[in-house]
Amino acid sequence: xxxxxxxxxxxxxxxxxxxxxxxxxxxxxxxxxxxxxxxxxxxxxxxxxxxxxxxxxxxxxxxxxxxxxxxxxxxxxxxxxxxxxxxxxxxxxxxxxxxxxxxxxxxxxxxxxxxxxxxxxxxxxxxxxxxxxxxx
Length: 136
What we know:
By secondary structure, the protein is mostly helical. The chain folds into 2 domains: 1-41, no CATH class; 43-136, no CATH class. It has helices at 52-73, 85-114, 118-131; strands at residues 3-4, 11-12. Strands 1-2 form a two-stranded antiparallel sheet. The protein is globular.
């Protein structure tokens, strides 16, 4: 569900109590899903109507594109390295973000279809990361 900033009415697609990305307002009481990494957040796509099947195919497609880029960049396919250095890294980041967006879209779609509270899922994920020592 989309929420607006109480102060500037910026549309948030998140479920965490974090300051507004636009005006910095604390928005206490508003639930927002926003990455805890500064500058990174993933939108809930509203220009399409995904299904679990279409999301699965999209995630696999994006992973395939990333793997192809990584393999060719490292010469793993037996070909000469096509891209190296900064340009290869930039392309790899772009493809990684595509994978992440596709996965987030699948999470939203599954939560909507099966009545799952995404907030609980995110809290559980963060707890798991902390228990493993990946997040402090």
